[in-house]
Design a protein that fits this description.
This protein has 436 residues and is α+β, with helices and mostly antiparallel strands. The strands form three sheets. Strands 2, 5, 6, 7, 8, 9, 10, 11, 12 and 13 form a ten-stranded mixed β-sheet that branches. It has a three-stranded antiparallel β-sheet with strand order 1-14-15, with helices on one face. A two-stranded antiparallel ribbon has the order 3-4.
């Protein structure tokens, strides 16, 4: 048995070390997308720092989000990480206060520019690696609890986890095939989902490529509103929206004749009904399942006697069970939002300014999509569903040393690294990647 080392000498003198060696891959992918040039040329920046160009600060925020800095204050650990700074092309990493003040300095026109760049990049990436012929929009809302009443837009609203605490209530649209974000709205906490549904859909509608005409929407009960649904009928947009279990609908579902379509007693039925203030009758689908003996966390489902009920309004020409099967994959929305909260800093509000927090929100959505595109275009298919936490652990957060050897720049990593093949596959795909 070998002897362990007992005496050490500690020296803080090697500036070439980093534990973000794998971030080189993501950085190179962003270079291939020409991300820096987009921010330089497509936004007329009003803010000018003496030490940093706005583009450098934007990229610093995005890269630190991907690297795992959940709060802007966490970026202070990068001040001594010269290797990470070299990757960004910075002589010194910005202080947290510099990043925070930069967010506060961004005006509405510059925010529109950031959103426009996100849209331009999505348009370039859309259809890669395989062309798409249809779109499925998954609309969802979530709650972001806030700590403090001085934050602009901090209002008390629907907040099931922390009742009575102020919050934001954002709406986000994901594309069902790729899981890319299509648009998002950050809103005060007392705003109802239906009040922003039209604005969210209007923004998404403008971004749809003209050659795509098969468009469908899946949404939860927060979007069950005639002001949102009736325009979809007029535009001939297919939809499945969870219905609110109003008293008339509760009475309807109790009197229907159900047909079994799955094992374990799952049953389905349909009916036609015109809710109050709606212009015409709509088609409703009801799915019910027997209550298990022990059932937890079913606060969103209406129950009657021995069944839990799911009710949907739809204009799709599908059988009731097919409507259910079409809607089911929307459950991925919950995982996507959890990813934004747990792997990205969606739940961490950086300033007291609502506009600055909107900027931060849209940078999170952009960073999320950049990671999504990186997985889809640079990694094997089995990695496409990996969380960012997994990517950091397995690929991005690697001990490394940056070495300059003659005219070559070398990043040296541990010889026993188990994903060497994956790493070089990613390098090869990035080197051969070309945007349309």
């Amino acid at each position: 048995m070998g002897k362990s080392i007992r005496k050490f000498e500690f020296l803080f003198e090697d500036p070439t070390l980093t534990h973000f060696g794998g971030m080189f891959l993501f950085y190179q992918f962003c270079r291939k997308l020409d991300l820096k040039r987009f921010f330089q040329r497509h936004i007329h920046w009003q803010h000018r720092s003496r030490d940093y160009h706005p583009t450098e600060l934007i990229l610093a925020i995005i890269y630190t989000m991907v690297a795992g800095m959940r709060r802007i204050s966490d970026t202070r650990i990068l001040h001594y990480n010269s290797c990470f700074q070299t990757l960004l092309g910075l002589e010194n990493f910005p202080k947290p206060s510099t990043l925070r003040e930069f967010l506060k300095s961004i005006n509405p026109l510059e925010l529109e520019g950031i959103i426009r760049i996100h849209d331009l990049l999505r348009r370039k990436i859309w259809g890669l690696p395989h062309p798409a012929s249809s779109l499925i929009f998954d609309l969802d809302s979530t709650v972001l609890p806030l700590f403090g009443w001085k934050i602009e837009g901090a209002k008390v609203g629907y907040n099931p986890t922390k009742p009575g605490r102020p919050c934001y209530h954002p709406l986000i649209c994901f594309e069902g095939h790729t899981r890319d974000t299509w648009h998002g709205l950050l809103r005060p906490g007392d705003t109802h989902p239906a009040s922003g549904a039209q604005a969210l859909w209007s923004a998404c509608r403008k971004k749809i490529p003209k050659y795509l005409y098969r468009i469908r929407i899946r949404a939860d009960s927060g979007f069950f509103d005639h002001k949102f649904i009736e325009p979809l009928d007029e535009e001939k947009i297919g939809y499945v929206v969870v219905a609110k279990m109003t008293k008339p609908i509760q009475e309807k579902v109790q009197s229907l004749r159900y047909h079994t379509f799955r094992k374990n007693g799952w049953q389905v039925a349909r009916f036609t009904y015109q809710p109050h203030n709606w212009k015409r009758p709509h088609r409703f689908i009801v799915v019910r399942r027997p209550k298990p003996k022990e059932e937890n966390n079913q606060l969103t489902l209406w129950e009657f006697k021995d069944y839990f009920y799911h009710t949907f309004v739809t204009n799709l020409p599908l059988s009731p069970k097919s409507v259910w099967h079409f809607y089911k994959p929307r459950a991925r929305c919950e995982l996507d939002i959890r990813e934004l909260k747990e792997s990205f800093p969606l739940g961490n509000i950086p300033t007291n300014s609502f506009l600055a927090n909107r900027v931060h929100f849209h940078l999170i959505l952009l960073a999320y999509d950049l990671v999504n595109w990186f997985k889809r275009l640079c990694l094997p298919r089995q990695w496409s569903s990996a969380t960012l936490h997994t990517l950091r652990r397995e690929l991005l957060n690697l001990p490394a040393r940056l070495v300059h050897s003659g005219s070559r720049n070398q990043i040296k990593m541990p010889p026993g690294y188990i994903h060497q093949k994956l790493f070089f596959q990613a390098v090869n795909k990035i080197n051969h990647f070309k945007t349309p």
